[in-house]
Specification:
Radius of gyration: 29 Å
Order of helices and strands: EHHHHHEHHHHHHHHHHHHH
Structural class: mainly alpha
Largest sheet: 2 strands, antiparallel
Helix content: over 70%
Strand order of the largest sheet: 1-2
Number of strands: 2
Number of helices: 18
Shape: elongated
Distance between the termini: 69 Å
Length: 366
Amino acid sequence: MATVHHWTGLEAHALRLALRMSVRALAEHLGVAARTVAKWDKLLAATEPRPDTQAILDTALARADAAVHLRFETLLSEAGRPGQGPGGRVTASGPRAWEYESWTDDLDRVVVALSRQNFAFAENLLSRWLGRFGPPELDDKGLYLFARSTALLGDLHRDQGAVLGPLSAQHSYTGARLLFTQLGIPRRVAQLDLSLAVVAEMSGRLELAARHYESLAVDDRLSRRDRARARLWVGTALSKEGNHDYASRVMTAATCDFEDLAEPDDWSVAHQKLALAHRGAGDLTKSLHFIDIARRTGTTDSPMQRVRLDTAHGHILLSDPATRNDGLQVLDRAAKVAAQYGMSHQLGSIEGIRTTSEGAGRPRRR
């Protein structure tokens, strides 16, 4: 919102136009004579309101809504940019109204870019705003956009595999969580808690991740879909720890939730996770059954989705000597895509599967 440090007839005239008032209407609104307002319109910057009238104009501008501020700042920009001229009479504190709109639009573009693993473009859009404003100069709306931007930066780092450290998903998520806590938005805080639990799982702290997932699976701050996702991820953490039977039961419950919620993508991902859990338990028949469902129903529009599904499929095929070569080919394909798009965490997972498969005991088909 703009602040006028020293009013002249130019700023007063711009305020009248921004308020969409006639000379007489503005005079009545301010409690001054109509000839005074007419003088401002005629002389513009060559005249200055009296000190008491300056205060009245300050109050009128402060009480105006965002649309009036937008028009006021636009009119002054067209007349000669705010802040230029003698003494810098007008400044804008924080983003202007149209900048908030542009910021919101750019965040929508970031979401699309991240879904396509276009990391460079997403980072450019986020840096445009995070480097332009700081939290102390923002009102609640600006702070909300800053927090959303920081959370999306965390998603970017997570998908690139930068999990821990000063330039990492954990650092960004923690910063965004603090801002949403300050704003008093519990749902966003809980979503950041869920993201931080994912970071814990990705960094190998499986027991800690499972505990956090279990807590969030019954957290009323989250939507039912997010609670179901937390329940599914309890299973993934348990399966990685070797507790495959219980993990399968938890995942099955989450799968039923996704079916009730009519969430086909999550339902498909749950079958992918179930396939890996049954592979870990040594039941390749069920594992192949569930991965076939995931492959038939899963969305593969993005490189990340293709890599995850191929990695799971390749891992299962690698578990049977009869399909080992097929598994290696599928993993090779997944590795090429992961490397092409800079998905280092997925690439590391693929290499780990290749390494541990050599000499490891392979489950027998039931």
